[in-house]
Amino acid sequence: MYRGACIQCHGEKGDGKGKEAVNLAIPPRDFTAATFLIRSTPLGSLPLDTDLFGSIRRGFRPEVAMPAFTFLTDTEVWAVVAHLKGFSERWKTEQPFAPIEIPPPPPRTPQLEQQGQVAFMSLGACFVCHGMAGLGDGPAAPGTTYAVGSHAGEHVPPANFTRPRNFKGGSRPQDLYRSISTGLDGTPMPSFAQLTPEQRWSLVYFVLSLGK
Q: Measured between alpha carbons, how far is 122 from 127 in angstroms, rounded to an integer?
């Protein structure tokens, strides 16, 4: 399954250097580093097997060029998950942490969005990378790079919040809450688990208010 569906981008060694990788604006995931952006587990943890299954089944935003492999059976997707875990020794020595809790979303209100704007500008300092209007053009954006793996040092652009359909992990409120809580391993996007659930939900709703 891996050779048929994944090797062109992710490479035979799983290092994200398949022959099609040079044609992609955002490099394919390097499985040898075992750092994954989309997880239900805390920052620095391996993902759950179900996280990997979901990423393969769902795919990612269009500009990443990672399609949704809906044509594979569940058995075939689980086979790919098992194979890609063989690219890193981390899977032999570590266990994933317990997943973070995602509480039910509170009602979306203008007041909560305003609180989120304050957090965006102060508590999280999100504007430094994502820009004042969420366009991904903050003052630090030109220098944001991958931190690990074969693509370390390469530029990774901050998300443009005006284009929610391109969000890597999905654009539902729960998806954004997860990303804010877990961070995106291997990128400059940290975890904001230190914020209260209310503060995180306020950030979620402010970010969604920027979408077109």
A: 9
Segment 96-148, tens digit of pLDDT:
999 999 999 999 999 999 999 999 999 879 999 999 999 999 999 999 999 98
pTM score, two decimals? 0.91
Contact, 116 vs 205, CB < 8 A?
yes
Tokens of residue 124, six digits: 């999280």
DSSP for 82-101, please give it: HHHGGG-THHHH--PPPPPP
Q: Residue 134: inside a domain, yes or no?
A: yes
> Exposed/middle/buried for 93, CB within 10 Å: 0-12, 13-18, 19+?
exposed
Does residue 70 belong to any structural domain of this protein?
A: yes
pLDDT tens readout for residues 5-51: 999 999 999 999 999 999 887 889 999 999 998 999 999 999 999 99
For residue 98, tell me if it sits in a domain: no
Domain region containing 168: 110-209
CA distance 183 to 86: 24
Residues 59 and 135 occupy one common structural domain? no
